[in-house]
Amino acid sequence: MEFNPARTIKITALLLLLAVITQVGYTVMYVAEMNPPKQFFWGLETLLFTILSAFATAAMVQAKRFQLGWAAIAASAVLNVVQVSIGLTLFIPFREAAAQTETLQPLARAIVALSFVIYYAAKLLLGMAAVVFGMNSMKDGNKALGGLTALLGALALVANAILITFGRDGFLPSPVAGASGVVATLLLAFCLMSLAREEK
Question: pTM higher than 0.85 for the full model?
Answer without folding.
Answer: yes
